[in-house]
Amino acid sequence: MAFITLNKSKLLYNYRYLDDLFSKSGVKWAVVAKVLCGDETFLKEVLDMNPSQICDSRVSNLKAIKSLNPDIETIYIKPAPNGSIDEIVEYADISFNTDLETIKLLSEEAFKQNKIHKIVIMVELGELREGVIREDLTEFYKQVINLPNIKIIGLGTNLTCMYGVLPNQDKLIQLSLYKELLELKFNHPIPYLSGGASVTIPLILNDSMPKTINHFRIGETLFMGTNAYDGGVYENLKQNIFELHAEIIELYEKPMMPEGDIGINMTGEKVEFNPEWENSVNYRAIIDLGLLDIDSEHITPVWKEVELVGASSDMIVFDLGNNKRGLKVGDTIPFHMDYMGILRIMNSNYVTKITV
Prior knowledge:
- This protein has 356 residues and is of the alpha/beta class.
- 28% of the residues lie in helices and 25% in strands.
- The protein has ten helices and 17 strands.
- A nine-stranded parallel beta sheet has the order 8-7-6-5-4-3-2-10-9.
- Strand 2 (28-32), helix 2 (40-48) and strand 3 form a beta-alpha-beta unit.
- Helix 4 crosses helix 5 (100-112).
- Its cofactor is pyridoxal 5'-phosphate.
């Protein structure tokens, strides 16, 4: 058995800190809850903090959020697939968009459901993921603004997620200028400039964020206490809100060096072995987790003497040295995880979720 815990008090501490930071900066912010993968146990803890908005990139997760709290404002934060238009209009109050034909489908569906569907138009500022090309933005806006049952409430941008392009004052000022241009040309207010994510927080802290940026989407820093800009941690935030515990299903003293001819393993790699392992015997523990559940590169044993030595689809093997803790089959080993590790393990149906 394996299970992941969420520390409620640490999460609430981070939420209150960030809420105070954004409030003082005149910024509205939304919790990006995609790392929870729609798990109701953990979603309830987030909803109990009373955020004003929750974002997700899976419509099934937004459906779970609405089932727990129908009144919370939900945001779908990637371009909508055509096959999910009806559900997006039903479960997302706001969606982020970049494609004209998709917005037309949202308009038609919103009319059918007798709703006004709010949208944020994402603008390409160099990350080359989602976003309308800047040169096309005015014409794009012109074709969207009068679509029935669609209300444009903001412009937004995404940075860092794919290529690591960092936000800076210049890029966010560009977004602000496009807002001013469109408002003047079309005489239509654009309430939100959603230019902020976890990676943008340092611009608030060093007072270099344009005042016009008034909406942030925050996931990593809330759930991890990490600085997405430089990979460090914030000393005034809590880390390791999540902890993974995996049960030992085998534990023996075994040679460190395998015997026989070495070929390609199941992941397509030819493993290289440390020459120092020759004639060495240590305790080896197999845990009840595998690459199906999590990439072993994204977990770190809490105990320093525990070292990863190999992984396969359903099992991961660790060297325990001389097993100074006296571990045995049935005991669990605790692990910390990075953001991608949590995202992967939360998506596993084989791992129990527990709040502490």
